[in-house]
Design a protein that fits this description.
By secondary structure, this protein is mainly alpha-helical. Among the domains are: about 55 residues, no CATH class; about 50 residues. Helix content is about 60%, strand content about 5%. A 3-stranded antiparallel sheet has the order 1-2-3, with no helix packed on it. It is globular, with a radius of gyration of 20 Å. The two termini are about 25 Å apart.
Length: about 240
C-alpha cells in the first residue's frame, strides 16, 4: 500500500502487537515526509494494529493473566513509580532495571506448545487412518504439507515478542540454536536434521523480528542493546 520503507517500519512497530507513542510519532513523521494523508494513514495503522493483536491473541495459550505493573503501552517502575514505555529495560527517572514486569508468556511455554504439536503427530501416526493418509499424500505428491509442521510455524510466528531485558535475552539464547541450519549440503535432508531445518527459517524470522524491534525501541539502553546485537551477530543479523 505504501512505499517499502514505511511498510517495513509499520511491520517492525507492530511486531509485538503493541504501538508505543514513540513508534507512532516516528511512523507519522515518515508518512508526512512521504506526502501521505495523515488521517487515512492513522486509520490504516489502527486497522493493522487490530489485525496483529487478533493474530497474537489467537496464537497465545489461554492462561490466567498474571499480576502485572503494566498499563497498556506503558508500565510502572516498582522503585519510584514513574511511568515507562513497555519496551524500556530501565527507568529513565531512577535507572532501576526492569525484570519480569508484565512479562510475556515465557519461552518455556512456547516449547510446551511446540511439544504438544509433536504429541499430536505421534497420536496421528498411531492411528491406521493417519498413517495411510500420510502415505497416500506422499505417494501422490499432494503435500498439503505437514499440518503439524505448519501449526508449529504458526505458533512460533505468532508468539508475542518479549518486552523485558531478561525475557528478550532468554528468548534469543534459547531460540538462536534453533534458527541455525544443521548439517552441510549433503546432510541437511537427513531425517535427524530435516525436522530441525524445516523450522529454522521460522525461528530465524522470529529472532530477526526481536532484534529489529530492540534496535528500533531500545536505543537509550546501549548496554542491553549491545548484548542483543551479540546474539544477532551469531545469525548474521545486522
Amino acid at each position: 500500500m505504501y512505499n517499502e520503507q514505511i511498510e517495513n517500519l509499520i511491520n517492525l512497530a507492530l511486531a509485538d502487537g503493541e504501538l508505543t507513542e514513540k513508534e507512532k510519532q516516528i511512523l507519522f513523521k515518515k508518512a508526512e515526509a512521504a506526502g501521505l494523508d495523515l488521517d487515512e494513514f492513522e486509520m490504516v495503522l489502527d486497522a493493522k494494529l487490530f489485525e496483529k493483536q487478533q493474530t497474537v491473541k489467537a496464537a497465545a495459550p489461554s492462561v490466567a493473566a498474571p499480576k502485572s505493573d503494566k498499563f497498556g503501552d506503558v508500565k510502572k517502575c516498582p522503585a519510584c513509580g514513574a511511568i515507562a514505555q513497555s519496551f524500556q529495560t530501565k527507568c529513565s527517572d531512577c535507572s532501576h532495571e526492569f525484570s519480569n514486569i508484565g512479562a510475556n508468556v515465557s519461552i518455556g511455554k512456547l516449547f510446551e506448545m511446540i511439544n504438544a504439536c509433536e504429541n499430536e503427530r505421534k497420536e496421528e501416526g498411531m492411528s491406521i487412518g493417519g498413517a495411510v493418509g500420510g502415505l497416500f499424500a506422499k505417494a501422490y505428491g499432494l503435500g498439503g504439507g505437514d499440518k503439524i509442521l505448519e501449526k508449529k510455524k504458526s505458533i512460533i510466528s505468532g508468539f508475542p515478542i518479549p518486552n523485558t531485558k531478561d525475557d528478550i535475552l532468554e528468548f534469543l539464547s534459547t531460540a538462536i540454536p534453533n534458527a541455525k541450519q544443521k548439517g552441510n549440503f549433503m546432510t541437511k535432508q537427513q531425517p535427524e536434521n530435516k525436522s530441525h531445518n524445516d523450522l529454522a527459517p521460522t525461528w530465524f524470522s522470529k529472532c530477526e523480528q526481536i532484534v529489529m524491534k530492540a534496535k528500533f525501541s531500545m536505543k537509550d539502553d546501549k548496554k542491553v542493546l549491545e548484548e542483543i546485537m551479540q546474539y544477532a551477530k551469531e545469525l548474521g543479523i545486522k
